[in-house]
Amino acid sequence: MTPDIDIDTATIWTVILVLGAGSFVLRFSFLGMIGAKPLPEWVLRHLRYTAVAVLPGLVAPAVLWPAATGGEPDLARGLAALAVIVVGLVTRNVLAAMAAGAGVLYAVIGATAALAL
Amino acid sequence: MYMTAALRRAPSAFRLGLKDGAPFILVIIPFATLFGVVSREAGLDAFEALAFSVAVIAGAAQFTALQLLNEQAPLLIVLATALAVNLRMAMYSASLTPHLGAAPVWKRALVAYFLVDQVYACSAVRFEENPHWRLDQKLAYFFGAVLPVCPLWYVFTVVGALVGAAIPGWMALDFAVPITFLALIAPMLRTLAHLAAALTSIVLALALAFLPYNLGLLLAAVAAMMVGARVELMMRSEA
């Protein structure tokens, strides 16, 4: 290991190319191999829940233990997440939910900063 | 009903895709800019940052790889961890196969390249809502949703890399992604089965967060899919 701060160019390009190819293989996997072949009903039944099985688990740790705060729970981020969920459930509108989340996030960040002054 | 369904043409599906993809412009711009800034800080030039975003086109994996590179992690660990973050893409691929599997292989390859979280989530919801859609309508919808999302990912990666470290930390740009995903999830919770799957996913992902290489998320996702399928069967036999 060299003590250089910069990552060397060969390493960067290896990561870019291998990660790019690997990500494509993952994304193409089933679309490419199975194609138009019919899938059994029990498989389809499981696949219907893919989105709702992956995204909540992906986001939950980021809400409770944000990397940006060193993994400490953060009031602004927590309340913003709550606002997105509530507005999303009530309106079923992605844009309204995201706007509510951003609004609460900055309102709480602003209020916290004002209190600290 | 069948008549109107038959009258719906691909252009209207394309426009619906555009409309569903458009809100993500608001989060793709800050997130891509942030990636550009972080890659500049890690010593990448604008061209390398752009190549990263074009080749990988997956924010979470790109951030993971950069962070590990910064920590001087061994190359194999960097690649394995970032690819593990992207393993969910294989699940998306499987999920869209019943809808798009009949397309010619070059179109399936294009779909695969652009299979990002936001486009997948919109498509999964709309394809389930519109079971009468033909293949060309589904493809038109998919690429309609790609258009507002993916080109901006490239452009603002470059902007971030050129602007450099001008974004203050208080702006909490990191939280653009959780907000997006949460906004995507809420409209999906249409049935008890969907709700049960989502709760399983959250509880298990948090409980298994200690596992390396993002394995906790994958186990949580598989378990959540099984719970969703099981609840669906139970509800059906009750009805």
Which structural class is indicated by helix and strand composition of chain B?
A: mainly alpha
Order of helix and strand elements from N to C terminus of chain A: HHHHH
Q: Give average pLDDT of chain A, whole number.
A: 88
Query: How large is the radius of gyration of chain A?
Result: 21 Å
How many DSSP helices of chain A? 5
Count of DSSP strands of chain B: 0
- Count of distinct structural domains of chain A: 1
Could you name the ranges of chain A where pLDDT drops below 50 across 5 or more consecutive residues? none
Number of helices of chain B: 13
Strand residue content of chain B:
under 5%
- Poorly predicted regions of chain B: 1-7
The overall pLDDT average of chain B reads 89
What series of H and E elements makes up the topology of chain B? HHHHHHHHHHHHH
Helix content of chain A: over 70%
* Share of helical residues of chain B: over 70%
Tell how many strands the DSSP assignment of chain A holds: 0
* Largest sheet geometry of chain A: none
Keywords (chain B): Cell membrane, Membrane, Transmembrane, Transmembrane helix, Transport
Pfam families (chain B): AzlC
Membrane topology (chain B): Multi-pass membrane protein
InterPro entries (chain B): Brnchd-chn_aa_trnsp_permease (IPR011606)
Written account of the structure:
The complex is a heterodimer of chains A (117) and B (239). Chain A has 5 helices and no strands. The longest helix of chain A is centred in the first third of the chain and has 25 residues, at 9-33. By secondary structure, chain A is mainly alpha-helical. Chain B has helices spanning 2-7, 10-21, 25-41, 46-56, 59-70, 75-85, 88-100, 105-113, 117-129, 135-163, 176-185, 192-207, 215-238. Classes of the chains: A mainly alpha (117), B mainly alpha (239). Chains A and B meet through helix 1, helix 2, helix 3, helix 4 and helix 5 of A and helix 4, helix 5, helix 6, helix 7 and helix 8 of B.
